[in-house]
Amino acid sequence: MDYNNTPKPITGEMDDKAKARLLLTLWALGGTQTKVKKSDLTSKVKQKRQGKKVGIYQGLYEDLKNAGAIEIHKENQVPMVLLTETGKWMLVEALQNHEFEFEGTVVASRLANGLVDLVRAISQRTSGTDT
Length: 131
What we know:
It contains five helices and three strands, in the order αβααββαα. The longest helix is centred in the last third of the chain and has 19 residues. Strands 1-3-2 form a three-stranded antiparallel β-sheet. The chain is mainly alpha-helical.
């Protein structure tokens, strides 16, 4: 095992993409209405094949929490994450960025379905219908 091969922090454009992926995954897991276990969220977001390890996501959680995009609460010593209204609009802005794209050749159906649900929610809000 190579102990010098520590994960490097995500920065810049990768940071923005990782934040968008985290927010979209939280949305897809129902994180606007129910709290999601932080460990479940991290396991869905991490990208082992691209050298990203769990530890580097801690900084993203802190950044998103400080920006008001997510709330993190402990329930029975288990960190739970909730997407805020600010987080929803940060997600929309991130997805509208022309630099954002999914990496690789396969996109998880939960992300694609989450994106479809987000578009529907935005469409309902802008058209004034409530279903």
